[in-house]
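Pilot study result, target chain (284 residues):
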Amino acid sequence: MKLFKIFGKIILYFFIISFIISLLFFYLYSRPKKTQTPNTPFDFKLNYEDIELNTIDGIKISGWFIPNKDSNKAIIMLHGWPADKGDILANTFFMSKKYNLLYIDFRAMGKSGGKINSGGYKEVLDIKAAIEYLKKRGLKDIALYGYSMGGFAAIFYSINYNDIKVVISDSPYDNIYAILKDFFKFYWILAEPILWFMNFEYKILYGKFITELSISKNIEKIKTPTLFICGDKDDICYSKSIEGYNSINDKIETVILKDFSHNESIYYRGYEKIVMEFLQRRFE
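Predicted structure:
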């Protein structure tokens, strides 16, 4: 009987420790350290407007609008985690040659308001605010370009709304749970309980289990022409899974870059050509 009580206490302490660790990491991941890249479109000889958007859940979103007087089309530019709009500016502003661009800081990042970031799920509301802004400016042909977390959020926006023309999703993670599972594997027997608690904490805070938010589980729901870009050494993007997306859904195109890891695809020498050729075929 005494041995049973000791064993019971060990199990109880085990789950208490797992719960405490899960809360700590959930807090850290939900409140990323804010970074503000010093460069602006002006550094690339581009005229732009500082703008502020309001989401339907009351978050102020900071953005840059780069106008193109010769175009009636616009692309919303979506950065990764944890970063800001300036982080992708230097490697993506080439799209301004043909289109209006709107760079935004996701909630709780860059200069935007909000204290909590969901890793791509609630950020769909930030994208919605950006789209409504562009519509008010008379720009109704809208595309999404997303990088890493931005690519993940762009995909889920396209699944839930039908007011965009195309999506370019560069190096999106398939799901948040898989990334956390890889990170917590070093915690050995604590890993599964920690993830279990974090899954429920996400559900309580955002109304969805992390495990529900998977691109591969929702690939057939994509109705918007979509380009996936991923390096073949990108274990965040899971390039082997992405390779098969176009065989499941004919709205999808895939480009796998040899010898590129996560956050490197944007530096591929032929990157501009890949992006602009897709936009010319699907967005013109």
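One observation from the pilot: The two ends are 75 Å apart (CA to CA). A full batch analysis is planned for the follow-on phase.
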